[in-house]
Amino acid sequence: MPAPERADGRRPDELRAISLEAGFAPNATGSVLVRYGSTQVICAATVEPGVPTWMKQQGVRGGWLTAEYSMLPYSTHERKTRDINRGKLDGRTVEIQRLIGRSLRAVIDLDKLGQKTLWLDCDVLQADGGTRTAAITGAYVAARLAVQRLLDMGELKESPLIDSVAAVSVGLLGGNMLLDLAYIEDKDADVDFNIVMTGQGRFVEVQGTGEESTFSHEQLQALIALAQKGLKEVSALQAAFLASQLLATQSHGLS
Known about the structure:
This protein is of the alpha+beta class. It has helices at about 55-60, 85, 90-105, 110-115, 130-155, 185, 215-255; strands at about 20, 30-35, 40-50, 65-70, 115-125, 165-175, 175-180, 190-200, 205-210.
């Protein structure tokens, strides 16, 4: 039997249309607008001199990388109250920005960054499922663009980035395994996973939950394999985009 078609017409193992637009936040050192289907996230990388006080107190060498994540009030169907008006970050926000930071620190040599802090700000313009996965994928690209700018300016001698990193969701819905869940799928999924993987195929994080359900070892292996398939495609997309940006920069410099 043919695989059932999804609400947006995709095959079960098909990613949403993913795109990257550079320079979306011109005041940042590097930035992109990343789209996973209707989900849109601005990812901006800003490099500042100095490191956190705790690093100096503990004698930790090198630089630091940290992330912040937020959903703009109009990013969801019903207006989302800003964290600042609640007086604190909600648990989901804290979890996601820590995940973004961990994911990017897995692929950077902080010693090579020097006494600098790389800030990654991920702001959701529109949420239709997978905002954390889109943020991680876009944050890496923004960081790579920022590093290239520092290399071009002579502020770094070599790139501290040792690999790429990307993320995607997978899940079980109605007995079907689906790649890159949109919100309409995510909200009803029996099992939901977020997988973070490097360009070399190393796992950074595997977050999986049975939403009032359970899953077998065989299903777990199949979901991870489905995520690996998707992440190879995302990694290739990142590499192609960055290559085109570098070529455009070099051509501009020669003109």
